[in-house]
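Hi V.,

You were right to ask for the full record rather than a summary. Here it is.
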Amino acid sequence: MKMKNRWIALLVIGFVMLLGACSGEAGERTFKLEEEGITSMVTYEHEGDEVIKHTTEVTMDYSALGLSSKEEAEEFFEAMGSSEKIDIEGVSHDITYKNDTLSETLTIDFTEADVEDLKEIPGFGDDEDLENGISLKESIKLIESQGYEEVE
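Predicted structure:
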């Protein structure tokens, strides 16, 4: 009888956890990719399946880019246009150049940003994606297909 009660308790706990995961609860999921001197972390803050904030943090060794100094890196990214300030409400972008590495952080708060303004960011997403909101499930599928793995 005790064994049966334990199984029932385990089933109830599992069911409660499943309901919590499927409900519209808020949370945060972080994914990491490391390749040859480049580390990328992507964090999604979400409510249910809707992403409300997306943060990407990338750290790169200059040598991984074929560069040898902070000055070369600044010139390289300026020529690419990556160092330009993004002036969109709800979006912050920062590049920090250190001795041997650079760190870049891009944060988009979808509760503050205007969808029309976000369309100005090259490669961000097509009109339908932005109009309907950003799906956590689809975002995870995309980055996992690129080699990212979830971190706890």
